[in-house]
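Severity: low
Component: inverse-folding endpoint
Summary: output formatting inconsistent between runs
Steps to reproduce: submit the following structure tokens with default settings.
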């Protein structure tokens, strides 16, 4: 077993998942504005440190994705943030793309940038303690999208990123996100997601990426948020499993779903059903941002010094998702 494979398996062992705390300063400012807390570097750090030092981290969280600002910050006890995360028994990771920009040649679509100078940045992050990284490609669904151009160019970027990350001794999280914005059916989501994931693996193999040392972070198969034909949670699980079984090479050790606009409970319920019916060799876990933090953030915003109360809410959410990652969650555990 390679060291990269070891890290990937350790992040997702025993139902553990990933806390996506890699919101950019702009996104984090929107979240804090939404709960009337001023977005200062101190407040952003205070909220994140509150979560990273929660007791639930040790049992339920195998990795934390950080943002450039956060990985360089010191905790109130003067440790660096990656040290705090390692001390909680979790691995620090880092988002390394520089965001989705307009795709030249298809102005309604996006291409993720950040390959320039990436090799040097990776060396710096590795020195700061990062064990894994994240890069997100985004795809729209409509009658004409995602275009071949978008599918190809994002897959190519994800593969080049992954090769550089592994060269530097870290595990790449490969995140091709087919967005749920729109009125498309779950059937459309299924076919487009399958196409996107297959193309990603074609490129990863072409770039000689070691598939045993990556984690895939896909969307679940859902109808668009404006679609009239919503499907049941059982159907979401069935289609998601079918899509991944047909598109992901068996060497990949684990899949950590993004929550992609689902509510906290929805994201947990769908993950649970996926695991109850998991007939693949893949570990199926979670890499959630809002679906792990939303309740804690709302509570914290009422009194940002109430660390214990905030941690209690975060611990509960993390525990629910770890149970779901083992197919052991049920609604009555939420109370």
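Observed output (run 2 of 3):
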């Amino acid at each position: 077993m390679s060291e990269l494979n070891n890290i990937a398996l350790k992040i997702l062992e025993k139902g553990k998942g990933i806390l996506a705390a890699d919101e950019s300063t702009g996104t984090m400012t929107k979240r804090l504005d939404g709960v009337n807390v001023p977005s200062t570097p101190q407040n952003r750090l205070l909220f994140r440190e509150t979560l990273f030092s929660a007791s639930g981290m040790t049992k339920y969280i195998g990795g934390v994705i950080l943002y450039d600002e956060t990985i360089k910050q010191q905790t109130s006890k003067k440790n660096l943030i990656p040290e705090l995360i390692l001390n909680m028994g979790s691995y620090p990771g880092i988002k390394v793309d520089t965001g989705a920009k307009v795709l030249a040649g298809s102005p309604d679509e996006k291409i993720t940038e950040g390959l320039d100078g990436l090799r040097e940045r990776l060396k710096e992050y590795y020195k700061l303690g990062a064990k894994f990284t994240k890069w997100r490609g985004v795809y729209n669904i409509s009658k004409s999208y995602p275009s071949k151009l978008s599918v190809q160019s994002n897959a190519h970027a994800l593969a080049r990123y992954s090769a550089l990350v592994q060269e530097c001794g870290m595990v790449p999280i490969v995140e091709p996100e087919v967005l749920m914005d729109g009125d498309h059916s779950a059937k459309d989501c299924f076919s487009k997601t399958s196409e996107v994931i297959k193309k990603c693996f074609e490129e990863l193999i072409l770039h000689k990426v070691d598939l045993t040392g990556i984690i895939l972070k896909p969307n679940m198969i859902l109808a668009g948020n404006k679609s009239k034909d919503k499907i049941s949670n059982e159907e979401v699980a069935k289609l998601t499993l079918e899509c991944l079984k047909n598109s992901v090479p068996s060497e990949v050790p684990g899949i950590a779903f993004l929550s992609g606009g689902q509510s906290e409970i929805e994201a947990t319920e769908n993950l649970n059903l996926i695991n109850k019916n998991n007939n693949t060799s893949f570990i199926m876990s979670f890499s959630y941002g809002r679906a792990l933090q939303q309740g804690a953030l709302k509570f914290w915003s009422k009194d940002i010094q109430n660390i214990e109360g905030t941690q209690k809410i975060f611990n509960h959410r993390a525990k629910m998702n770890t149970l779901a990652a083992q197919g052991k969650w049920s609604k009555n555990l939420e109370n």
